[in-house]
Design a protein that fits this description.
Elements: H1 10-42, H2 44-55, E1 56-61, E2 68-69, E3 75-87, H3 103-112, E4 121-124, H4 129-137, E5 145-154, H5 162-165, E6 168-170, H6 173-176, E7 189-191, H7 194-198, H8 200-203, E8 208-214, E9 220-227, E10 234-237, H9 241-250, E11 256-261, E12 268-274, H10 288-295, H11 305-308, H12 318-328, E13 337-339, E14 342-345, E15 348-351, E16 359-361, H13 363-369, H14 372-382, H15 384-393, H16 427-433, H17 444-456, E17 459-461, E18 466-470, E19 476-479, E20 484-487, H18 492-507, E21 522-528, H19 539-542, E22 545-552, E23 559-565, H20 571-574, H21 576-586
Helix pairs in contact: 9-21, 12-14, 12-15, 13-18, 14-16
Length: 608
């Protein structure tokens, strides 16, 4: 009889399985607990930040830029309110949701903001009323889209003094890639030229911000907190708006520059550069094509011709030849040369501007009539080294130091002896340089410093355009004082002679079109030949440049004025009348300079 086997009970069969299940569940709970510990303890701050960011949005509130005013407090640049369209990349579900904005433009902006998905990006500036209303009506269907009121730069007078004031536009991608712009965000505005750029740190102010709670679709629910922006500082320029507007009006339709300065301080009173531009157009976002069209404009409207362009000074340089001759003893006021209308150096003929010549002239008459033949001979007698030395002492060949960007340095002769294979400096080069042609090149600002030194008795001042910086409360934060760069070692009688000769230029000679009754004006005309005559140049582009440098009143100089008309022809014909308009504005009845002119001064006779 067999023995029955002992079978395990059900509880004995399930026990190992239960133990295994309990172990697995225990391990799972342990892993879960470890994960929770990791998320809560080690990564708690990060996840809290992500949660908050997903629920809250920080919207920057742009600070109003400070105003720019003239020396008397007249507003030159201000702000106006505008409505801008912003998108938040994280919340935008479809580019097609944006009203009347090309898909490519939206995608490009979203690509720019890929590294800051919660940072709102500026999409369109200065929406008109129709588009603003359309966005507001559909805002519930436009997650991630918002309208904001923002102060935008406004230039009430349009293009007046535009090249001096500069303009404001968005920081571009090339700038954002540079270290000095790391604190800027895409779409933020900053000064890009002129005073707006040079003093941007003062004008820009300190932005504020809003913390806004949003729902899952990125729609604003409530304002959590707000930090008010702090307005930028106001900039008071040395510019006199009245004189500036008169210079702009007198220069209408011309190409070149007008610049005026206080000769005893270096304060710039007016600065015109034409062709120019309207800085208001940069308040809108320019397309790449629009910007390229401005940058490629052959007339260079963005260039400030007052200190960034350079030209041959023409007959204005004769003042340097005369001073060099008087100081070295090579010339005296009585030195005479004959002018039959031409001059031969060897077999090379150099013509005078006046056919038939001027006859026999002394130094004063040669300056008054701007006789080329006289100065051909005077230059040979003085020598190129002495002429260059004196010109450099007056600031020619060096940047004036205005501090508003790149400045033209010009050039002066650098005579080198003849070497094998090189022609070297010749007497013919000296003849050409003596009338401000050839290797002599200057900027209008350099000539302004030169004529100011003649007017004030021999001091070179650094030109400047900002008088003071003031907070919105009126507190003066910084004030700029005149800076004397050097005192020239020129005899007082030499400069007195030159001033009287320049008075004769206006009263008797080539500058008579600058005459203003009751105001003794000293001046010097100049007509500089255009050397480059390349293919494709029109007749107007081949005409000479016209100069007029001047100061008034001669007996108590207050305002030197330099006028340069590109391709305008004779300086006495096109540039002198512009200076006349500036002086009429400066010494008008309401001008602070009017009291400096004696009321009983008689108008001198006009010579031949």
């Amino acid at each position: 009889m067999g023995v029955n086997p002992v079978l395990p009970t059900p509880s004995q069969t399930l026990a190992p399985r239960i133990q295994t299940a309990v172990l697995c569940v225990g391990i799972a709970f342990l892993i879960l607990l470890l994960r929770l510990w990791y998320m809560q303890i080690l990564e708690g701050d990060r996840y809290f930040s992500l949660s908050t960011t997903n629920r809250l949005r920080v919207r920057p509130v742009e600070a109003p830029r400070g105003f720019i005013l003239d020396r008397h407090g007249e507003i030159l640049v201000e702000n106006r309110p505008t409505f801008d369209l912003y998108v938040t990349p994280e919340d935008v579900t479809s580019p097609a949701e944006i009203l009347e904005v090309p898909k490519e433009e939206i995608e490009a902006r979203l690509h720019e903001g890929r590294e800051r998905p919660y940072q709102p990006l500026l999409l369109r500036k200065d929406l008109d009323e129709r588009r603003m209303v359309a966005v507001e009506e559909r805002k519930l269907d436009l997650p991630g889209v918002s309208l904001r009121v923002r102060p935008v730069r406004a230039y009430p007078s349009g293009g007046i003094a535009a090249n001096l004031l500069g303009y404001v536009s968005e920081v571009n991608q090339a700038q954002l890639a540079r270290e000095e712009y790391q604190d800027f965000r895409p779409g933020e505005n900053l000064g890009q030229a002129g005073v707006e750029q040079r003093f941007d740190a003062f004008i820009r102010g300190l932005d504020g911000g809003e913390q806004v709670e949003v729902d899952a679709r990125g729609r604003a629910l409530r304002l959590v907190s707000r930090i008010e922006p702090r307005s930028g500082s106001n900039i008071y320029l040395t510019i006199d708006k009245r004189i500036q507007e008169a210079a702009e009006a007198a220069f209408a339709g011309k190409k070149g520059t007008v610049v005026a300065m206080n000769p005893t301080t270096g304060e710039i009173l007016a600065m015109v550069s034409r062709p120019s531009y309207d800085p208001n157009m940069f308040a809108q976002r320019l397309t790449a094509e629009e910007w390229q069209r401005i940058a490629d404009d052959a007339t260079h409207p963005l260039q400030n011709r007052a200190f960034q362009a350079q030209y041959p000074p023409g007959s204005v340089f004769k003042l340097m030849v005369a001073i060099a001759g008087l100081e070295s003893g090579a010339l005296t006021p009585e030195t005479k040369f004959s002018c039959p209308g031409y001059f031969y150096l060897g077999n090379v003929k150099f013509d005078d501007w006046k056919k038939g010549g001027h006859g026999t002239l002394d130094l004063r008459s040669a300056i008054v009539n701007s006789c080329n033949v006289y100065f051909y001979q005077a230059g040979l007698k003085v020598g190129i080294e002495e002429m260059t030395r004196v010109a450099r002492a007056f600031g020619l060949g060096d940047p004036p130091g205005l501090g508003l960007g790149d400045e033209a340095t010009g050039s002066l002769p650098n005579p080198q002896p003849r070497r094998r294979g090189q022609p070297g400096w010749s007497a013919g080069n000296t003849v050409v340089a003596s009338i401000g042609q050839g290797p002599v090149v200057t900027s209008p600002m350099q000539l302004l410093s030169m004529v100011s030194a003649i007017a004030n008795g021999g001091t070179i001042y650094r030109p400047f355009v900002v008088k003071k910086i003031a907070a919105l409360s009126g507190e003066v934060l910084d004030e700029y004082e005149p800076e004397s760069l050097r005192r020239l070692s020129i005899k007082p009688e030499t400069l007195a002679f030159i001033r009287q000769a320049m008075l004769g230029v206006v009263n008797e000679g080539t500058g008579f079109r600058a005459k203003v009754p009751g105001i003794p004006i000293g001046g010097k005309t100049g007509t500089a030949q255009v050397v480059r005559k390349g293919e494709g140049k029109g007749i107007a582009e081949l005409k000479d440049h016209g100069w007029f440098v001047s100061f008034a009143p001669v007996d108590n100089p207050q305002i030197p004025v330099v006028v340069l008309v590109e391709n305008g022809g004779f300086g006495g014909l096109v540039a002198a009348p512009v200076a006349k308009a500036v002086y009429e504005a400066a010494f008008g009845a309401r001008s602070p300079f009017a009291r400096l002119v004696p009321a009983d001064t008689k108008e001198p006779d006009i010579g031949d």
